[in-house]
Amino acid sequence: MKLSGQAKLAGVIGYPVAHSLSPRLHGYWLEYYGIDGAYIPMTVKPQDLAECLRILPKLGFRGCNLTVPHKEAAVALMDEVEEHARRIGAVNTVIIEQDGRLFGRNTDGLGFLENILVNAPAWLPPSGPVTVIGAGGAARAILVALMDAGVPEIRLVNRTAEKAEKLSQELGADVIRVWPWQKRSEALEDITLLVNSTTLGMNGQPPLDLSLDRLPHKAVVNDIVYAPLKTPLLAAAVARGHTVVDGLGMLLYQAVPGFFAWFGQEPEVTDRLRQRVLEGLQ
Ligand SMILES: NC(=O)c1ccc[n+]([C@@H]2O[C@H](COP(=O)([O-])OP(=O)(O)OC[C@H]3O[C@@H](n4cnc5c(N)ncnc54)[C@H](OP(=O)(O)O)[C@@H]3O)[C@@H](O)[C@H]2O)c1
């Protein structure tokens, strides 16, 4: 590890933060590219977030990532928020400018989309409807990314229908259609991509109860859950011969813009990086 008195500094702020894979991820890139820098985990309570963010420029930090539960609250604490992050209503990447101003971005949607485009290159966003299961925090970024990529119709299915309706209204998008939870298997007809953005299928959670019988054989299946990497949904999709994309790539690709802004090197997402981050999950 290269760490001089002039090291470039960044990190991740969360509460708790011990579970975060970001230090391992950025730490790998720092080592791989031989960069004089450090990326550290910072445990910050919600009531201390504003104060801690203001201190970062004074400490010489170049920026940070934000994770649960800070992403939404951070929007109001930035000096400037990019339009994309404002639409999502959450900031996951803070870039500290030369004069100490905090610039907020959201790279979750970008990470989601890049993961699909790289791992399922035959999928074309404008080619047909997409079904997204779940309307939580992650879904917001995914919906904005799909809308911006030109998906003609997005079927949004959530256990609590009101949340899906509210999200659709907030995003003000004609392309989003809310489907009832009971009709989730019908919502798979004619689609080109199925995304699970719920917590179902995660270690310790029940699997997503969804029949894939109506899913067209060419449809791609993506689960943004990455612990385990092969969720019951992905296993069922593989058994039917679908192209599947696991959730780890979203985490890796969302980290690229922050690393580039803080450390001046565009990092590559490689199998070796995947392996290193996966070791952190075990
Ligand atoms: N790969 C990545 O980089 C990445 C990034 C972000 C998040 N994630 C993963 O994505 C998942 C969701 O994260 P989030 O931040 O969006 O969570 P969240 O805001 O808490 O939303 C949870 C979602 O799961 C649904 N849900 C939970 N329990 C359910 C059940 N028993 N039956 C039906 N639906 C249920 C919720 O539905 P209701 O509205 O009805 O409660 C809601 O839509 C997590 O597993 C997280 O680790 C991955």
Topology:
Layout: E1 8-14, H1 22-32, E2 37-43, H2 49-58, E3 61-66, E4 80-81, H3 83-88, E5 93-96, E6 102-105, H4 108-119, E7 130-133, H5 137-148, E8 154-157, H6 161-171, E9 176-179, E10 193-196, E11 220-223, H7 232-239, E12 243-245, H8 248-254, H9 256-263, H10 271-281
Parallel strand pairs: 1-2, 1-3, 4-6, 7-8, 7-10, 8-9, 10-11, 11-12
Antiparallel strand pairs: 3-5, 5-6
Bound molecules: NADP nicotinamide-adenine-dinucleotide phosphate.
Measured distance between first and last alpha carbons: 24 Å
**How many E-type strands?**
12
Low-confidence stretches: none
Strand content: 15-25%
Mean pLDDT rating: 97
Series of secondary-structure elements, N-terminal to C-terminal: EHEHEEHEEHEHEHEEEHEHHH
**Proportion of residues in helical segments:** 25-40%
Strand order of the largest sheet: 2-1-3-5-6-4
How does this model look, in words?
This protein is an alpha/beta fold and 282 residues long. It folds into 2 domains: 8-106 and 255-281, 3-Layer(aba) Sandwich (Rossmann fold), CATH 3.40.50; 109-249, Rossmann fold (3-Layer(aba) Sandwich), CATH 3.40.50.720. Helices cover 34% and strands 19% of the residues. It contains 10 helices and 12 strands. It has helices at residues 22-32, 49-58, 83-88, 108-119, 137-148, 161-171, 232-239, 248-254, 256-263, 271-281; strands at residues 8-14, 37-43, 61-66, 80-81, 93-96, 102-105, 130-133, 154-157, 176-179, 193-196, 220-223, 243-245. The strands form 2 sheets. The protein has a 6-stranded mixed sheet, sandwiched between helices. The model has no long low-confidence stretch (mean pLDDT 97). Bound molecules: NADP nicotinamide-adenine-dinucleotide phosphate.
